[in-house]
Predict the 3D structure of the following.
Amino acid sequence: MLKIWRTEALSPAGTAMLPDFMHRCETGRQRLEGGLPRGTRVAHETGTLRPNVANGIGIIELPGGAGHVIVAVLIKETAQHLRAQERAIAAISRAAYDNFESTAGRTN
């Protein structure tokens, strides 16, 4: 994802197309986007193989032009129902967002 975001992995046309495609993704809205603040832009893609595999990968835009966070969550071989898997993905996404949003603009 980082190479795609930095335009290092695809042709210029592919680089322009993929994030646009991911911004328009309609499936899995309760995954990476599920726990984020309303209006947060997420370019994402999902994968599901019922009953025990749910995935979400995407690029989350931080507020105020503070940057982006790439998140990939892959769940495999769980006894949890799909909705529980989606809640877990949303919680991981929110934890990453909160961590990087709270440290945005700081220098180490």
